[in-house]
Design brief:
heterodimer, A: about 425 residues, mainly alpha, three-stranded antiparallel beta sheet, 17 helices, B: about 650 residues, alpha+beta, Penicillin-binding protein 2a (Domain 2), Beta-lactamase, six-stranded mixed beta sheet, five-stranded antiparallel beta sheet, 21 helices, 22 strands, about 20% strand
Chain lengths: ~425, ~650
């Protein structure tokens, strides 16, 4: 087999997909951030120029990651996790506040965002813990311990007021489920989302009625021999409590902008004047982004020809809203291609993960797929108005050194682990 | 199973995203158009509007620059407000007002500070404007009328209304468009095609350079100059003669259908509807419901034609062979059916043949002819239809098809008309004999009547009247150079033309002869009614006159309508003779006739429905004599009229 070539048996499909996404992303960052003539691709006055430099550094990182021994990552996982947690803690002392979140270190002219790097560190630690021979993910005790590994960085990031990055940690649910989490948790998760949407969109009564119908339907028409009474009533009471809790959480705990985003997503605002005002303020980004995407049509307006992109109508277009540039300039064909590239990359990673012989590699691969999928889901969903606004970058696409490097490290550690599969006996 | 959760979720999300993209970009998307993209600013470059010349090459309408003082509120730096206010002749309160209003509209976009400065005001400001940062001057083009006449012919331009903007994508808010007259008819020729520049703008609406380096930009195409058929000297003379009278004059060149003069009185100075004062003046003109200066009486006013219509009865009689030129009819001061007098008549010799019937304008003669025409056919409706078709072949009873956008159909009844009125066959020719003498149900507009005269003078055909002579050398529409034939044979015209000639030689227009010109004419005096306080009241008769000259190879055919002008030869006849002399000789020798017209006013007559004074029907009443008016007498319809209610 070709894979026998020592050192070169990387999965080239994954690498090709990665390169396509980074390259196409860079072109779109150029569109979204250039002003007038493009004199140099390394023009450090513009984001696209900086991104060029970031990409070059990325190749250095890739070489470094692939050069290290595959065992290194498993062995040092705990230490990497520890350093990552330290760097998050350090933010409380030395952090720089950007857009209300205390998420950046400023070193010289550069800024680094440790929360981005915490993702792969957490993945490594989680993979290490789960793959430990003494860990049984079917037991509640080990589930709690594993959850702790995730919750720690998530809470730190939340305390730094970066709720968007915190949400991403929910992605690890897929890993837990794959490694033995009971099915009831999946049912509970779906049930909770349903309750939340119903309670907010309509009211608690509707939510509880629907819950009751589902619960009693399950208990009476399920294949049980003796229908129980006490258990469903207890579940229902829990539903009532949870519904009220969600309402309370929405009304009293969420910050105003978060509330507004959910209210828009669920179309809770019916007063047209208020809605019009929202379109000018908090809906502005989404509104402009959807308009830019729509105006692309089937084939788009062409590279560097997007009128709304050139006019900078979509704020933050080169970072979180980069997909609207794709939509406007490359049209349906280009945007659908990007979606397909992401799906292909994710499915490829999943496929490789299932092939792994070591549990560490498999769990880590699952972590990579889950994290990338969550970013893909939230970012593109948000830009197209399918998901409430949550400001997280589109992997490999969005402008920004920290995010690009963190995602590259995340992905290429897996590429390295995968290349070592043949030696895992 | 556990392996499938993430896999299927990924596949599902991918599909949802592609579906959403399809919905946003393909299904839900109108075809992209640069013109509708609000991220692109469209700046229009307006071409020069075409000039308008009269038939002799005299410039009537040109353009003049006007200057808007513009400013961008955010760019205004502290300045000497007092000096600027003095320069612009505004108060400091105005200044603050304008500024605040513009700032509220947009601090980043240019607003008009003071619109349409004149050349003089601009000259003073020009050298100082650089001192005021944020202010600049924008040039606009307005119409510049080189004349004070022909407001109804030339028309005016004004801003497009919303209806046009919605229905014609060429026009954008604020564009100017022809509103009346030639400006309206030849809008597309005169306006040219505006150029367009696409500029990319950012989300603050600031310009950030040409879109795609201007590859889609277009240059403006200048409007074409046009020459109209009006003889401005004759037009001016006609307007002078019609001062203090209401009515219209239409003069047509029979050999081409060109409209030489088109006077509607009272009129106004076209310069009133230019620039800043346009809307104020327009409102004043619009609100004058007695004089109605905006109502073009020469094209739109529908009057009973009166006696000039009799010549058609004669022509149809000859064509239908129900009468010969020798047949004589008796007139007993009217037409009698048994012992009932159906219509009256004035004193003249009796019996009369056709020639004198026309010359003396005998009512009884034409009623006899009319009845013979209708009664020739077994059913009255059939006869009526035959008569109606003959009349309509002279361009009456329907829109003439001339190139001005306003007009009226007039009314020529047919068999159906009376069948509906009285019931099928429940009427006979005696029911509507007034049609014979141009009263009853017959109504025409002055231009239709002039065209009818042109057809008679051509002995059987006419060219559709038109106002356009040429468009920078282009040929005019073929429809204006193709003759329209009437249903009357050529040989039947001679006796009628001779009759009209004799109107001037011993007939009703004997006093109106012009030395050295053979004029054929026909007087007309039309009864007319108005509802005053709910009561149908007969007003003073209209004075009508039609004529053409010379008798052979006619150069001019004319119809004159003077509202409430007592009788045909009194006002309309005099005006027609003066116009003909002026046009053919180039000067007026009949100074006493001219003096009479210029010193007699009908304003009192027009006030009667409101003042309650008696109308003198069919008898001479005292005329209002005024100081002689001249070309330079200012008659401003906008000056406060003395109220008749005092």
């Amino acid at each position: 087999m070709q894979r026998d070539f020592r050192g070169l048996n990387f999965d080239w499909i994954t690498i090709a997909l990665f390169l396509l996404l980074v390259g196409f992303g860079w072109l779109n960052i150029m569109s979204a951030s250039h002003s007038g003539d493009i004199t140099s691709y390394f023009d450090m006055n513009h984001p696209y120029g900086k991104q060029s430099v970031f990409i070059i550094f990325t190749f250095g990182l890739i070489i470094l990651i692939l050069a290290l021994d595959a065992k290194f990552y498993e062995r040092f996982a705990s230490i990497i996790y520890f350093i990552s947690i330290l760097s998050l803690l350090g933010l409380f002392l030395f952090g720089k506040n950007v857009n209300g979140a205390l998420g950046w270190y400023s070193i010289g002219g550069m800024t680094l965002q440790p929360s981005e790097f915490a993702k792969f560190a957490t993945s490594l630690a989680l993979a290490k813990y789960i793959s430990d021979l003494q860990t049984n993910m079917k037991t509640f005790k080990d589930q709690i311990k594993a959850a702790g590994i995730i919750v720690l960085p998530a809470v730190l990031i939340l305390l730094q007021n970066d709720a968007g990055s915190t949400v991403v940690y929910a992605a690890f649910f897929f890993v837990f489920y794959r490694e033995g989490l009971q099915q009831i948790y999946l049912v509970i998760a779906i049930f909770l989302i349903l309750l939340a949407v119903l309670a907010l969109k309509f009211n608690v009564v509707v939510a509880v009625l629907v819950a009751a119908a589902l619960i009693f339907g399950h208990h009476f028409f399920g294949q049980r021999k003796r229908p129980q009474i006490i258990q469903p009533i207890a579940v229902l009471l829990a539903c009532v409590a949870v519904s009220f809790g969600i309402k309370y959480f929405y009304n009293n705990i969420l910050q105003f902008h978060q509330k507004d985003r959910i209210s828009i997503w669920l179309r809770l605002e019916s007063d047209p004047d208020k809605l019009h005002e929202m379109k000018q303020t908090i809906l502005y980004n989404l509104n402009e982004s959807e308009k830019a995407i729509s105006s692309g049509g089937l084939t788009g307006k062409g590279f560097l020809q997007g009128t709304r992109t050139t006019g900078k109508f979509v704020p933050e277009q080169h970072t979180d809203y980069i997909f609207s540039t794709v939509g406007e300039e490359w049209g349906f064909l280009g945007s659908a291609l990007v979606v397909l590239l992401f799906v292909a990359l994710l499915l490829r990673i999943l496929y490789l993960a299932e092939l792994q012989k070591s549990q560490f590699s498999r769990v880590y691969g699952y972590c990579v797929a889950s994290l990338l999928f969550f970013h893909f889901l939230i970012n593109i969903g948000m830009v197209m108005g399918l998901i409430p606004t949550i400001g997280i970058p589109l992997p490999f696409f969005s402008y920004g050194g920290s995010a690009l490097w963190a995602f590259t490290i995340l992905l290429f550690i897996f590429v390295k682990l995968d290349s070592n599969r043949i030696n895992e006996w | 199973m556990r392996k499938l959760l993430l896999l299927s979720t990924i596949a599902f999300v991918g599909l949802v995203f592609i579906a959403r993209l399809f919905y946003l970009q393909v299904y839900n998307e109108d075809p992209y158009s640069l013109l509708d993209d609000n991220a692109i600013r469209k700046v229009y470059d307006y071409p020069k509007r075409g000039y308008i010349y009269d038939r002799n090459g005299k410039l009537l309408v040109a353009n003049q620059p006007s200057y808007d003082v513009m400013f961008i509120p955010r760019e205004v730096k502290p300045l000497d407000t007092l000096e600027l206010c003095n320069l612009l002749k505004i108060t400091k309160e105005d200044f603050i007002n304008f500024y605040d209003k513009a700032y509220r509209y947009s601090p980043r976009l240019p607003s008009v500070f003071i619109p349409q400065l004149s050349r003089m005001e601009y000259a003073v400001l020009q050298e100082k404007i650089r001192k005021y940062e944020g202010f600049y001057i924008q040039k606009r083009s307005l119409r510049d009328y080189q004349t004070t006449i022909g407001a109804n012919v030339l028309g005016d331009i004004g801003e497009v209304n919303n209806y046009i903007i919605e229905n014609d994508p060429y026009y954008k808010s604020g564009d100017l468009i022809g509103k009346q007259g030639v400006e309206l008819s030849y809008e597309e020729v005169l306006r040219g095609v505006k150029g367009i520049k696409f500029t990319q703008k950012d989300r603050f609406n600031r310009d950030i350079g040409a879109y795609k380096d201007g590859i889609y930009d277009t240059l403006p195409e200048p409007g074409k100059d046009i020459t109209i058929t009006i003889d401005s000297e004759l037009q001016e003379y006609g307007e002078l003669l019609m001062r203090h009278k209401h009515g219209g004059i239409i003069a047509i060149e029979p050999s081409s259908g060109e409209i030489i003069a088109m006077v509607s009185a009272p009129s106004y100075n076209p310069n009133l509807l230019v620039g800043r004062q346009r809307s104020r003046n327009f409102t004043k003109l619009y609100n004058d419901t007695i004089a109605k200066p905006l109502f073009d009486r020469s094209l739109k006013a529908q009057y009973p034609p009166g006696s000039p219509f009799k010549v058609l009865s004669a022509l149809i009689g000859l064509q239908e062979k129900v009468v010969t030129t020798q047949d004589q009819f008796t007139c007993r001061h009217g037409y009698y059916l048994g012992n009932r007098r159906l219509t009256g008549c004035h004193s003249h010799a009796s019996p009369l043949s056709m020639n004198q019937g026309i010359a003396q304008s005998c009512n009884a003669y034409f009623v006899n002819v009319y009845r013979r025409i209708i009664d020739k056919y077994p059913k009255p409706a059939e006869g009526m239809d035959v008569w109606s078709n003959h009349v309509k072949s002279f361009g009456l009873g329907d829109y003439l098809g001339y190139d001005l956008k306003i007009g009226n159909k007039g009314r020529i009844p047919d068999g159906d008309f009376y069948d509906k009125w009285y019931g099928a066959n429940r009427w006979s020719s005696t029911y509507n004999i007034s049609n014979a003498i141009g009263q009853g149900e017959v109504e025409t507009t002055p231009i239709q009547l002039a065209n009818m005269v042109a057809a008679i003078s051509n002995r059987g055909f006419y060219y559709t009247p038109h106002i356009i002579k040429n468009i920078e050398g282009e040929k005019i529409d073929e429809k204006y150079t193709t003759p329209n034939y009437t249903t009357i044979d050529k040989e039947n015209f001679e006796p009628v033309v001779q009759g009209m000639f004799d109107v001037y030689n011993g007939g009703t227009a004997y006093s109106l002869r012009v030395p050295g010109i053979d004029i054929c004419g026909k007087t007309g005096t039309a009864e007319n009614f108005m509802r005053i306080d709910g009561k149908r009241t007969q007003l003073t008769d209209h004075s009508i006159f039609v004529a053409f000259a010379p008798k052979d190879n006619p150069k001019i055919a004319i119809a004159v309508f003077v509202e409430n002008g007592y009788w045909g030869s009194r006002f309309a006849g005099r005006i027609a003779s003066l116009m003909i002399e002026k046009y053919i000789k180039g000067e007026v020798t009949m100074t006493s006739m001219e003096n009479w017209i210029l010193t007699h006013s009908l304003e009192n007559e027009y006030a009667k429905p409101y003042s309650g004074k008696e109308f003198g029907i069919n008898r001479q009443s005292a005329l209002q004599v005024i100081d002689k008016i001249t070309k330079d007498t200012v008659v401003n319809p906008l000056s406060t009229r003395t109220s008749p209610f005092k």
